[in-house]
Design brief:
Blueprint lengths: L3 E7 L6 H9 L6 E8 L5 H11 L3 E6 L4 H11 L4 E4 L5 E2 L3 H12 L3 E9 L4 E4 L7 E2 L1 H13 L18 E4 H6 L12 H12 L3 E12 L13 H18 L3 H22 L8 H12 L2 H16 L10 H18 L16
Parallel strand pairs: 1-2, 1-4, 2-3, 6-10
Antiparallel strand pairs: 4-9, 5-10, 6-7, 6-9, 8-10
Length: 357
Amino acid sequence: MNNVSIIIPVYNVEKYLGRCLDSILSQTMKDIEIILVNDGSKDSSLEICRNYAEKDSRIVVIDKKNEGVSVARNTGINAAKGRYIGFVDPDDWIEPKMYESMYNTIEKYKCSMALCNYFKDSKFSSTVKTIKVNKDVLGKLDIINELIANMVGIEDILPKYSNVMGCVWRCLYRRDFINDFELRFKPGISIMEDLLFNVQSLIYCDRVCIDHGVYYHYMQNKTSSLHTYNEKMWQDQVEVHNTLEEIIEEADLSEYMRNRLDSRYIAMAACAVGNEVYRSNIKLSQRMKIARYIMNDKKLKEVLNRAKQYNLENLRDLKDLRSKEEAERERTVIRNLIFYTGSAPDKSNNKRVNKQM
């Protein structure tokens, strides 16, 4: 049995795949299994996978029809033989000590799951993104407060902290933990499938360890689905959100997570409206019609009214760590969101706030 099985879903990434595989083959931990799941690529990705497999017996290539990244990762999980499972995206790359360090950490603390920090790389810069937790091991309460809550959404509209990115590539999982709880990625959605997987995994975890090293290079690829027009973005986002709510509800965390779920819904609506900016093949009037459809979403209006209650009324006494200016900016954001969606029940108060934010 290998120490770690590394699963890489591959789809039309011929430009980046070599860099990714070279970084994995350069790992200081040699006892690894590398599972390349070719998800029906139409470029030379499969050929590249097979060429690497000929040179290194640790590489397993699975060629399958295109069914999306969730099914590709699930295929990799089913084939994995290592004690632990990790995931790498094919347009990213990793530092040489990543899996040796994470393996030693998870073995030392006997946890079901470990997380590390990462670099957010672009063509011109590289920024370190760290988990703002000083502990090496988190118990159940810390898992909920520090990880799950901050993956679900921000507490306030203008927070002072960064959320925890719910990506699987920063994690190492015990394989028997994944299989015992039948953890798999949800097929059929194109975005945030790893968020759902991680939130569900964390809910089942009693102990999670943090490797404070920075090992993973997350590349901001401007041609990826996150940076180009996505026709199904709003539908996929709603499906993800509904599934996330179900997971949270089953864990009896709905009341605790309500404002964070609401913040996520507001953010995803804004993202879906912004997505229309990339759509240059139709008239502006048609794009605005789609944007209005999103902003007239019934649930969005309900969420904004709850956000109004939370962010406007509860912050009036200002007895928190925010300055008066920061609190006023939060109220301004909420008022403008309500104005643009027409969700305020009291029309006399439904006025746009023209303040510098």
